[in-house]
Amino acid sequence: MKKVLGFMLLTAFAFGFVACQGTTTTVPTTTQTTTTAAGTTTTGTTTNAGTTTQSSAGTTTTTTTATEPPVDLVINVAGENDKRLFTYLQANPLEMPDGTIIDSGDLKPLWQYIQNEVNIEIDDVATPGQKPADMFDLAAANQFEGADIFGGPNLGQKIMSAGVDGYFVDLSEHMAEMPNVSAYLAANPLVMSAITASDGGIYHLPYIAEINNYARMFLGRYSWVTALLDGEVNGSPFTLETETATLNVAYEAYWKTGTETLPYGGLRQTTNVVDLQNAAATGGVLDQATALQVLKDYIDATYPTLAKRSDLYLDETGQYDIDELVALWRVIKLSPLSLSKEAYGSAKPGTVIWPFYARQSNYREEVLRLILFFGGQRVHGSDSYGSRFYLDENGDLQYSYFQDDFLQNLNRIRAMFSEGLVDEKLSGAANTTNLRTGYIFKDTVETQLEYGFMCYDWTSSTTAASGGQDDVKAFLPPLTTTPVSEGEFIHYVENTRVVKPDGWGISANISDEALDGALRLFDYLFSVEGAKVQNYGTPDLWVPDQFYTNPTDGVQGPLFSTWTRDKATAVTNGDISSFLRDHIGAQIPIGYQKVIGFELQSTSANGMWSWQLYYGANDGDGVMMNSYSAENPYYQLVPPIFSLTSAENALLATTTTMTSDAQLIDRMMAFLGSKTGEGIPQTSEEVKAMFIAAGVGTYIYIYQLAFSRMSGDE
């Protein structure tokens, strides 16, 4: 029963969403012309004049004919990359199931469909390659004259602040025109509170992820662990190659032994495997044979009841800590010939193994999440890299990147980089080049010489198994204590699916006619049908009159067709989510409630197994994750955005550079990679000084004031 608790909570949240859709929406009809692959032209008109349809929630939606021309809407929704815009910018055309061709420069299929449903004409003016924050700052300089709607990732707080200053429409004054939004917010006061500004207004609608579900998991290659520790792969003997690789030890054990006092608890073990490996290194140089033998001997002596050595790390018996993980990573790093043989079929000289990697370098802050496992030091207060405030055990708001424990543990992450245990690309500039594709999806490619072992990423896409690897599954997170676990070691991850800081708002410069269309568009995505297409794509991607039932909660959703699955396999390695975003235009991070049904039905057997592993951990209570409703503030999520007053924003702008902290993060990550250059810190003390020089004290003070005001404590 406890294993599906998280899914039950999510289901309750989803039912709160669906049940609020008992409103009637009137949508004028339009005519749409498309070109098919055969070169013929077809014209379709929405003609459901006066008809009433029954929704899955038992409510009704009425569609009526109208003669009004579509309302023109100029929309500027920036993306994380060029693929995440409303406009299709892929190099190759997309042929839809009915033969319709989507060329580069066309609106993506979903937005063509929504145009027709809502009677609008979209002019997408987003600039390819422009970062969301840069787009917004440029728009602000022009007083938001360039579009009717602005939005994108991490723009919620910017829109809220600009709304308080009068630049965005107060949506709370238009709830009568948005009955679906109104009903949703009434049913979900948590979301209402999160998006309400300091003046009581609502200036944006957020992207709301699948609340109370794990956002990411530790995912890695099981076969590599059994090959190294058990000498077998899938029950067959595996012979290791003779390895010549070495590394210079730099990482020092965290969970010290002997008489030393550990944070928040007693001794982890009577010996520490990292200490043993470091002591066995010759002149500080560790080779594969030594590292492996020390690890094997340590497991045999410390965990004599394990059936196999690999059980320390794999399946539900996983009970390793961060030091034991580093010891394994060292062996993996030092085994490029053996592991390339396991992946490819024969050893490949010149292979480089990255024990820990991220999907792409702009996910580089994933490596900082490892700091959580050094005694529970919090890193992110919500599920975004920019959410660096968290609540401590006393309920006080803290800025994680300036905490002494965080800064000290940066040295341990730096040591991991120094030993080559973390992909060196994560210490460089952020970009969207997909590293994961090569590291785990190209095992059969002869020229592939870089492989990855473990990442912290989305379950469905990482376990897709469409490129040679078929054994990537979840690892339970490293055991750690926390300030409130009373010395107990638990499996814990701090990030979960949340109300995101992403979203969109309506410029106050919008005309009355365009405002009607914009409100209609915003409301449509919170209707039953609008939410369905935003989550699952256009109806031609589904099997007609058939549904997928989630095995965990019984909730039904559209069933993806064979065409959809095959096309996703062809263009996005089977990642349905990326296919929907990058090619169809669904799931762009604007105002809507995301559901998990699309993800579960496209999740492999390994992925579903991984979900059950996480929900079954900690004696059936599941891997601990933060939530909005946790009793202890240490385990609570912080708001996705903070509503600052105009005076507070002005003070930030004039006394700190923290609001534009990309350079700070660049320099901190360069420090982790032991890089040199102007402005790059060389010690953790210099990292701290860098934040002080940027005005972090004022920054923290203002956000603590805002949080007190939002909490009613001011």
Brief synopsis:
This protein is an alpha+beta fold and 714 residues long. Helix content is 34%, strand content 16%.
What does this 3D model show about the protein?
The strands form ten sheets. The chain has a six-stranded mixed sheet with strand order 8-5-9-23-10-26, with helices on both faces. A four-stranded mixed sheet has the order 16-19-11-20. The chain is α+β, with helices and mostly antiparallel strands and 714 residues long. It has 24 helices and 27 strands. The N terminus is likely disordered. Helix 8 runs antiparallel to helix 9, helix 12 crosses helix 23 and helix 22 packs antiparallel against helix 23.
Topology:
Blueprint: H1 5-19, E1 31-35, E2 41-45, E3 51-54, E4 60-63, E5 71-77, E6 94-95, E7 101-102, H2 109-118, E8 120-124, H3 132-141, E9 149-152, H4 156-164, H5 179-187, H6 189-195, E10 205-208, E11 217-221, H7 222-229, E12 232-233, E13 236-237, E14 246-248, H8 273-280, E15 285-287, H9 288-302, H10 322-333, H11 336-344, E16 352-356, E17 389-391, E18 397-399, H12 404-418, H13 436-441, E19 450-457, H14 459-462, E20 472-475, E21 479-480, E22 490-493, E23 499-506, H15 512-524, H16 528-536, E24 542-549, E25 556-560, H17 562-572, H18 576-584, E26 592-593, H19 597-601, H20 605-616, E27 624-625, H21 646-655, H22 662-672, H23 684-693, H24 696-711
Parallel strand pairs: 5-8, 5-9, 10-26, 16-19, 22-27
Antiparallel strand pairs: 1-2, 3-4, 6-7, 9-23, 10-23, 11-19, 11-20, 12-13, 14-15, 17-18, 21-22, 24-25
